[in-house]
Known about the structure:
Layout: H1 6-21, H2 26-37, H3 41-52, H4 73-86, H5 90-103
Amino acid sequence: MSRASEAQRITRLNLAFDWLRQGLSPPEATERLTAEAGISYRQAHRYVQEARELDAPALAVDAKVVFTVKLPGVLVERLHRYAESTGQTLSQIVSQALWALFRRGGRG
Length: 108
């Protein structure tokens, strides 16, 4: 079975959070999430446990879009080496770099 997407994870987490806030017990929320999401009791239990630690619903992530750029080969090589050494994806590294640029006052 494949891993849940980030959007599915957030949806399931927020369902559990809402049900707990409405007064369902953790076992009741787990049973309900199992039925609603079509996942195992064990998976649902993990979502409920995580939801119990939240102070507010989890924020939805922006949908990702494909964005193709042309970069010098040497820069791409360094990017791949950096990704391998940190365990991050290329998208994570580029996103962090762009957000840092914008925080410093880059236009955007």
